[in-house]
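the two lines:
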Amino acid sequence: MPKSLYIDPQATLRPEEHEIVFPRIPVMQYDKSVQDELNEGNFTREDLLHIYRDMFTIREFETMLNLVKTTGGYNGVPYNNPGPAHLSAGQEAAAVGMAYNLDTDDFIFGSHRSHGEILAKGLRSIEILPEEKLRKIMEEFWDGATLKVAGKGFEGSTRELGIRFLLYGAMAEIFARTTGFNKGLGGSMHTFFTPFGIYPNNAIVGGSGAIAVGAALYKKVNRKKGIVVANLGDGAMARGPVLEGMTFASMDQFRTLWEGDMKGGLPVLINVMDNQYAMGGQTRGETMGFTFPARLGAGFNPEAWHAERVDGYNPLAVIDAFRRKKALLEKKEGPALLDVVTYRYSGHSPSDQSSYRTKEEIAAWEAEDCIKTFAEKLTGAGIATPEELEAIREHIRGTIFEMYKLAIDESVSPRMDLVRENELLGDMMFSNGSVDSMGDGTPEVLMPMEENPRVKQIAGKCRFHIDADGNKVSKMKAYNIKDGLFEAIIDRFYKDSSLIAYGEENREWGGAFAVYRGLTEALPYHRLFNSPIAEAAIIGTAIGYAMCGGRVIPEIMYCDFLGCCGDEIFNQLPKWQAMSGNILKMPVVVRVSVGSKYGAQHSQDWTSLCTHIPGLKVVFPATPYDAKGLMNSALQGTDPVVFFESQRIYDKGEEFHEGGVPEGYYEIPLGEPDIKRSGSDVTFLTIGATLYRALEAADMLKERYGLKAEVIDARTLVPFNYETVIKSVKKTGRIIIAGDASARCSFLNDLAANIADLCFDYLDAAPVVLGSRNWITPCHELEAAFFPQPSWFLDVIDEKMMPLKDYVPVGNFTSAQQIIRAKKGV
Amino acid sequence: MPKQGQSVESCIVSEFKKKVGDSVSKGDILFGYETDKATFEEEAKVDGTVLAIFYKDGDEIPVLSNVMVIGAPGESFAEFAPTAAAKPSEVTPMVPEDAPLTANKADNDVNGAITSTIESGTAPISPRARALAVKLGVNAAVLRGSGPGGRVIERDIKAAVNCPVSGLARELISEGGFIAPQRGSGLAGTIKAADLKPAAEEAPDEYEVVKMSNIRKLIAKSMHASLQNSAQLTHMLGADATVLQKLRARAKKALEEGRTDANITINDLVCMAVIKALKKFPEVNSHCLGDSLRIFKTVNLGLAVDTPRGLMVPALKGADQMDIESLSKALKALADDCRSGSVNPDLLSSEAASFTVSNLGGFGVEWFTPILNVPQSAILGVGTMVLRPVLKDGQVSFVPYMGLSLTYDHRAIDGGLATRFLKQLAAEIENLELDI
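prediction for all of em together
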């Protein structure tokens, strides 16, 4: 909603054009022969033979895996590979054609069926990298561990060594060996090798759709060379992250609002490997309605994404298309879409009996096989004799067999011993880095920080909730949680050139809750912008941005919308650091605002969903001091942090930290709960805004019964240091764990179970969980019956811990009622 | 002041663009103001002259209150002045004091009924209460728990420790809200309802908590052990001290005349009489070991000495071998050693003495019940001398009587023996013959 873009009713209501005209989308227009290409000087004889070699290498690699899966061995050497193998035999021309024009600055992202793409990009990189650089990459990777096995006793050329290294590294990864490209933690569907520009493949169909767009955003914002290719299947074009990612990549603002050299489209190419099948569903004629995936481009922008449908059975047709698209992206005219026609011979996986297609259909495509027909073209054009081609094939078979034997040999290709080294994988879940700036440039800002209107406004505020005279400071004049978050974030924007932030209403509006008020004046468009209402794209692009080396703060306006980016938060963000063997870092701080007052779809506390997923850090501060200190820590780190904020308490002043919130930079380490009030008779452990209701309950308990409650604010849920809580429970013998999440399956229960376990001998009553009811959140006027209230604390103390004299309970916390509610499922 | 949004309660005026007396036209900017989220400008809605401005730049103004008055010159404006902001209404308590009992209370009563059916010894107990019971030596199995479902919880163990609790007091403690003292005012320290203090009325200013010194802790421990581990009771008998007074006067004279260097006190004389009596009642000069008696052939006399660091009871070994002068000197030396802290610790052991004398006569105490220095079988408490009327030959005369309180362990000594010993002691005192 920038004011510079005027919505003219005249032009809107009475346009000059009265129909939408779509650009024509070319279909299978390449018609050159090998001879034509040679005549035009596009290829040398050697280039063409390498294309043949690369296609056959992929074919033999996939054949090997297919034989291992279906016959239990290869060339008579038995091996059992229980893991997945989604093979791409048939798609070699599409893969090699895709990789031909790319160098190591160009990144590819893939799918579950990407062995061919990895090998094609790897083989091409080995071909074009300077030999010295290639050798250095291999020698430095895992401190030479992979090269040591692949290159043992080999005395051929560096490039030949590179091919062995690539084949062995990929195989070892697929067979879960520590010498694999990702220490065996990625496996078949997540094998990648970033030094060659090969970025993660993704076992979630369409998972790369938004991540690749984020990688392109990284290249653009940080002025890095290269384009980004997302290799997706035709089935993936049904997936939300792909469509949302395309929406994000299509944003007008890249051309209308971004300024200077930032003006122009994202360098991203969605490359659809149209192999006709989405598992067993047929995209054309059955499960989709687009006829050709290329048609989708027309829905996203006036250029129809420069979409084209090309012949993926002819590597030269694909190379031709990629050459033109890459040039276009480099001129900032992206994004672009290619629909590459191909066919897979094998089933979705080796267990697929192809019951949905006829043998005749497979045979007819095999008759057109891309490798066979390309060989015929080469011999027909006099490039090579059949014997010369057979010699190439023989050499490849030999190399693959050799690498196969090494990759399955436990003595040189061991697996991680997670039984003996019990914490090895646990220690890989987080990178736990501390990095001031992920960027290497000078941060681009529009004014000195001290001139910022928000900074000036905050300077006039009181940083503690009572002033020097001991009077309560009014809401308007109190430094609050929003101010704490703002100070941490603007500080980082002035420190880290790579930091960007975006989400819905992030710019002029200042975020729906005004945390970013003042940032618009401070930052150019490309560092702070409004995104489409597309949560999967907001988080997905942030993942791609961070994976490439940037730091980013995506915002989810209401916690409830986490459901809209479920795959990104649960399947992508937490996984890549460990799944890459710790090669990738993920410095993403997802700001999530927890609502209230707005009913069932805008008031839910979903912290527990995030704590359940290994690989995410989860933070939920409740005071300005904690908000600033924890945000500073989150932004200094290199791990994904889901940073929850409560709309109930955004304007709370600082009531706890002596001397108020410090003006300078300070960090509060993630994972340390904080005692907000000490006591001796019962412990209250709270999550988020529930802290203030627990304090009210503590007051009531003191006034009426002379009992002193110790109130601990969890502050961080993952990680979590239990020692503070154990010490408290040893003292008090009783604990209530309270938060606003619906009680069933909430993290409150996890805390309760662990405390019962760790403090059993010190407990005078079982830990009691006080969460919200297992209902929809009712309207604001009825919320007191839903969210934990101060009276609930006294109710459960009386009912479950130690009966209070003459106490009249407000709610029903009896065991009988607990059982009845569970029976009813509420 | 316009209300900008649901949650806005007040705004801050950034700058007044008009001052009193300025004429304004519809659409002129009157003042700028801001919420925490955004800044706004307020335009004049009418033409006129600014008659009044109730605030200044930077003031925080509640929404929907008057900021300025525009009118024709001369019009009155005072009636538009904003009133002081109403005090925020008091928070209503969640539950009125007189709220009727809810169904939940009935549920509690049901739980109560279940409690009463729990057999003694089978009540559930919390892990914390169990650990505390073991630590404090409380038999938790016989307690009635005050926790949910009759569970024995921490406070039940605390209430049960050390001293008995009356039925009513137990009831009150169970209901919560009361703090029981360590020891009650009833028989044998029984905590009675009257001893309970409401928990809320805790007033820390009334006392301070002072840590016990180590010697105090030792005294406390041995005194407590004495009462717990023996069957002690006290007999009291008066003795005519006329002879003692005469002997004391002679001794004083001898000291003044330089015939001796011993300052023989009344206590020394009593001790001498005690030694003589003990020689005739060896069972009293003994240690009670539960299943046997250790009867001493000599008298190792314990003497209670008040020192700045607390009570000490050194033993004088072989006291029966001494004449009055040496006994007096030895007892004095021993008491001095205690006060200076140079006493041999071995002599302070309760095993070192066979019988103890504790003299409070000097302080005017007439009678008292000394506590046994276990394993010793008996202890003598010596009181002050009081003049008693005595009828002799039809004449009433006043005689100085000394209070003798004998505490003894009934396990070792029967009442008859104790009485005979006490009478013997009185006779020794009344007929003491010493060569002074």
